[in-house]
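Structure tokens please, single chain.
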Amino acid sequence: MNPVVLFYLAASTGVFMVANSLLKIYAAKGGPLMLIASLACFCLGNYLMVRVMRENGLGLALALSLVFQLVAITVIAFVIFGERPTGLQVAGVVLGIVSISMIAWPQGGAS
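Here you go.
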């Protein structure tokens, strides 16, 4: 995966984290502007993900994105919103990190 694709992946993950955080605020406090801002961020995040999909295919792009988002949103929920994951949930995040390492691991040899 080249650095430009990694940038798009990181950017989309960041945008999705903002979108999910805005959606959490909307769920707790309401307000149509929070919902509109969240939806706009989701659209931008999906646009960035299309760039990743073009370079790496749908399967790898979404697998990488979903696990990165899983880890990032768990950290945001813990740090910003004060949520506390259970031991089983932490184990799931760790397994997600292991799985993405296995998916993204260079295959070696000719492709």
